[in-house]
Design goal:
- The protein is α/β, with parallel strands linked by helices.
- It has 13 helices and 13 strands.
- It has helices at about 1-10, 30-40, 65-70, 85-90, 100-115, 130-140, 160-180, 190-200, 250-255, 265, 280-285, 295-315, 320-335, and strands at about 15-20, 50-55, 75-80, 115-125, 145-150, 185, 215, 220-225, 240, 245, 335, 340-345, 350-355.
- The strands form two sheets. The chain has an eleven-stranded mixed β-sheet with strand order 6-5-4-3-2-1-13-7-8-9-10. A two-stranded antiparallel sheet has the order 11-12.
- Strand 5 (about 145-150), helix 7 (about 160-180) and strand 6 form a beta-alpha-beta unit.
- Helix 7 (about 160-180) runs parallel beside helix 12 and helix 8 (about 190-200) crosses helix 12 (about 295-315).
- The protein is globular.
């Protein structure tokens, strides 16, 4: 039923991104295989419009899993917060032991077996000062696509937010140095904003489509406007329907009410480059879908400034060489519509569906 609904809401001009998340989705590896089989044998299936990805905590992996992922072209992303002293402080096994050794082993083995391995590191007030160390750690393992994701639900102080400009600036310096060494790294905080600067900001299609083009399905059958809202607040607070009953139009409309109500945000000169439209991030930061919290504001301003500095530096020093490298990255990272030459973002401008198993091995 979920797969049928996915194809029902999609159309042949959109990339359909189906993500398996958790908890730990590979706890139910056999179910993932079954779902992929259903997708690929669906009457409306077309390999050019389907993107599959797995986000794992890295505690379950094998050669068999790697072969399955490679055969079905499933993107593999490991949630790891950084080197052992950071990872083990926040991601523990049920017995209290740290998970870093196991997760690092998974990353190293995955790099040997898979064509592309991503990592996502969550940072918060206790760890954001170590972001340079986090990137250096992943780089030393061989990772070249690094996602740094702030914990919007954390209690960020004014002093924390004030430090972001310096820390993101240091990340930009590191980003530039990697290019100088002819070893480019994708660091989302910098790269994502550079792409926006080059194309003039977010397009309408790239902005949040929660509850409209983005849905998350929980094991209970409940439907949510975003996977990050499953388990957030009361069980029915963000639920917009059930797979057996369909979507509630009233709840669906409420979930889509993430148009900024803050006049200051709407009038800001950086608004078109800012992620102020992300309803779930806004909820965790401010308690509502349509209010951008102060931490998001500080983080976005810092990221835009850091990306601007990095872009200017690389254009000045490397010129066409940097632009060629960036365009190569874009062609690899984004799905190309060969019929009209249009870039379709496989991360944000497409319908995104998440199927999860919420039985974690490692505590969140």
């Amino acid at each position: 039923m979920i797969i049928d609904q996915i194809f029902e809401y999609a159309n042949n001009k959109e990339i359909v991104d189906v993500g398996f998340f958790g908890g730990e989705p590979l706890l139910n590896y056999s179910l993932i295989k079954d779902i992929v089989d259903i997708i690929e044998n669906h009457p409306q299936y077309c390999e050019h419009i389907i993107a599959l990805d797995v986000v794992t905590n890295g505690t379950i992996f094998s050669d068999e899993i790697a072969e399955f992922l490679r055969h079905h072209q499933i993107t593999f992303c490991v949630s790891c917060d950084g080197p052992p002293h950071i990872q083990d402080a926040f991601r523990k096994h049920p017995n209290g032991s740290g998970s870093s050794r196991l997760v690092e082993g998974t990353i190293k083995r995955a790099l040997q077996l898979l064509p592309n391995v991503l990592v996502n590191a969550v940072f918060h007030p206790r760890t954001f000062r170590s972001l340079i160390e986090v990137v250096e750690y992943f780089s030393s393992l061989g990772i070249r696509q690094i996602y740094l994701s702030p914990d919007f639900s954390a209690s960020w102080s004014y002093n924390d937010s004030a430090l972001l400009a310096k820390i993101y600036h240091d990340l930009a310096i590191m980003y530039v140095d990697y290019y100088r060494q002819d070893d480019p790294h994708y660091i989302n905080i910098i790269d994502s904003k550079i792409l926006l600067l080059l194309k003039g900001g977010y397009s309408d299609g790239e902005r949040c489509k929660m509850g409209c083009k983005e849905f998350a399905f929980a094991p209970s059958g409940n439907i949510y406007p975003c996977e990050r809202l499953i388990g957030a607040g009361d069980v029915n607070q963000h639920c917009i329907g059930h797979i057996s009953k369909g979507l509630s139009k009233v709840k669906q409309c409420r979930s889509q009410s993430n148009i900024l109500s803050n006049q200051k945000c709407r009038e800001c000169s950086l608004s078109n480059y800012c992620m102020n439209w992300c309803g779930c991030s806004n909820y965790f930061s401010s308690g509502t879908y349509d209010q951008c919290g102060p931490f998001i504001c500080a983080s976005e301003k810092a990221a835009i400034a850091a990306a601007t500095d990095a872009l200017r530096q690389l254009e000045q020093e490397l010129g066409a060489k940097y632009m060629d490298s960036l365009l190569t990255f874009i062609s690899n990272r984004f799905c190309m519509d060969e019929r009209n030459g249009t870039d379709i973002c496989a991360c944000s401008s497409v319908p995104e569906y998440a199927v999860g198993n919420r039985s974690p091995i490692v505590s969140p």
